[in-house]
Amino acid sequence: MLIPDLKKLTIVTLIITALLSACATNPDGTMNDQQQTVAEGAMVGAVVGGLLGAAIGDNRRSALIGAAAGGIIGAGIGSSIAERKAQYATEEDFLIAEIQRNEDFIAEADAQNRQLYQEIARLDRESRRLAREYRAGQVSRDALSRQKASLEQQLAKAKKVQSLTEKQLADTQQVYQESRQKRGTEDQYTRQLETNLVQLRQTEEQSSQNVASLQQVYDDLSI
Length: 223
Hints:
Blueprint: H1 5-23, H2 33-57, H3 60-78, H4 81-85, H5 91-135, H6 141-183, H7 188-220
Helix pairs in contact: 1-2, 1-3, 2-3, 2-5, 3-5, 5-6, 5-7, 6-7
């Protein structure tokens, strides 16, 4: 059953509120400048992620997955590696947090990519059908224009996932290089970060493939 847009936005708003509450760590419930920056980034990310998930899957689970991914992604956008590192007392605590951040991101970005992959297959079938019907004089050019508009929206979303994955990959590469230089290649955290890099590259590859596939479907519809 489809969820009305208002309900989708309500879900996203509730998640944003929870994210902001989690960032308010001062005794009086306020946030310092660094916490505020991260919170604002998470808020923006949650909006983008929530709407992305809802638009791709058009169901409650998709909206929740999208907002959760947006929260992590947004927090990453709102803080640099140095800012995140400053939040931890030891280097080990920072590395543990970065590894968990990577694992959460990978799980959520992969979920987004799977949803996009399924949506691409549907859009491809629908676009091919519309193209045949247009050539047979059964549908108007307006129908093609509406389909192209839908494809443009999905393509923009796919590019957003790709861009955010590339940023996560770049951050992880930097943290990995620093850990490798300081702690060595056999250190447990260095090795876990290396595993993260392999997985993030696979995630980025799927993101790129989704973008290319959507672009191809869009180009094929140009009649």
